[in-house]
Amino acid sequence: MLTRLTHLVGNSWLRGGLLAIVLSFCGYGLYSEWPQVTAGLARLHWYSVVLSLAATVAGTTCMMLGWRAVLADLGSPLPAAAAARVNFVAGLGKYVPGAVWSFAAQVELGHDLGVPRRRSVASFVISIALLIGAGLGVAAAALPLASPGMARHYLWVLAALPLIAVGLWPPVFGTVVDRGLRLARRAPLERRPSWRGLAYAIAWNVLGWLLLGIQVWLLMTGMTGRNGYLLLATGGYALAFAVGLLLVIFPSGVGARELILIAALSPVMPHGTAVAVALVTRLLTTVSDLLLGAVGLALRRGAAGSGTTAAAATSPYAGTSKSSAGSSS
Question: Of 157, 151, 293, 147, which Cα lies nearest the Cα of 238?
């Protein structure tokens, strides 16, 4: 059953067909609401866009630091710059057709820095699970507080919160990870996720969701002129992004994320304005990924240029060689 499901998810024809259907609905919605969309975009000031982009970059960086915390907890700590060049460059892979390029790139780039592939695979899976769990948790906490009337629309998110908490409990989480590795015919991890490591990773992810919520809130404020709805923006975007990640058949959640975000924002603003917010959010997210990918590539070139020096500095025999030279002289 699992093999059949994996085959369906990886089927390029099925993925392309579903994506075409979703984008068709999105295109029709954009066409029908175009006057409201253009009106919302016309009210958007440049500084709102710049601040929103800054919040997006900061939120994505927090997500990277969450993955770095997981990797360190599993036994492969990386400097922040090294983690950035692995994560940000690998993130560009999600824009390449196919389901595994980002995942494969992160594993191989980590292996170049001495991280065992099995540990990279586990850190990737764990960080995605934490990202989704934290996102659904933020949505479950924020959306009912945004408006009491909205609680009934998101009861399924509230119902999922206890399951999320149990699933992220380290003993349970560690057992699930080991079981998954066995199913993949891999040896169990040398170290299981710890309370401390998961707490650090979850804290970084929650901070990332808050910053990404600020991104949406700034756009909402710029288009409507109203300063409220920060909780709605945060919860709505966290819900849309987390569910988009679960729908792995859509590359980078394209279409699905926008539809969910529009549905979350529509009760408090014209539908066309919500469409405009979703479109600009997607654009800024893509620009942020490209900027951070460029930073990662620049860091890789810098590391390659100083590779010989770094290798000598980090060699376990460097100190011995110097001391031996000193004694022989």
Answer: 157
**How far is Cα 217 from Cα 230, in angstroms, rounded to an integer?**
6
Radius of gyration over every alpha carbon of the chain, rounded to an integer in angstroms:
22
Asked if residues 281 and 261 have their Cβ atoms less than 8 Å apart, the reply is: yes
**What is the maximum span of the chain, computed from C-alpha positions, in angstroms?**
83
Return phi, psi of residue 294, to 5°.
Answer: -65, -40
Q: Transcribe 164-195 into DSSP letters.
A: HHHHTSHHHHHHHHHHHHHHTT-PPPSS---H
Residue whose C-alpha is closest to residue 40's, from 234, 257, 202, 266? 266
For residues 221 and 48, the answer to whether their CB atoms sit within 8 Å is: yes
Half-sphere exposure of 238 (CA within 13 A, CB side): 33
Helix (H, G, I), strand (E, B), or coil: what is residue 77? coil
DSSP strands (E only) in 135-294: none
Q: Within 10 Å of residue 220's Cβ, how many Cβ atoms?
A: 29
User: What tens-digit pLDDT sequence spans the chain (329 residues)?
Assistant: 434 434 434 445 544 554 455 445 445 444 455 555 565 666 778 888 899 999 999 999 999 999 999 999 988 899 999 999 999 988 887 776 555 777 888 888 888 889 988 888 888 888 988 898 899 889 888 888 876 666 666 666 667 777 777 777 778 877 887 787 777 777 777 788 888 888 999 999 999 999 999 999 999 998 887 777 899 999 999 988 888 777 655 555 566 788 888 888 888 888 888 888 988 998 888 889 889 989 988 887 776 665 533 433 333 333 333 333 343 33
pTM for the model stands at 0.78
Encode 294-307: b = buried (16+ Cβ within 10 Å), e = exposed: ebbeebbeeeeeee
Q: Which residue has the tokens 């440049």?
A: 46
Look at residue 9 and give its three-state secondary structure: helix
Query: What type of residue is 125?
Result: V
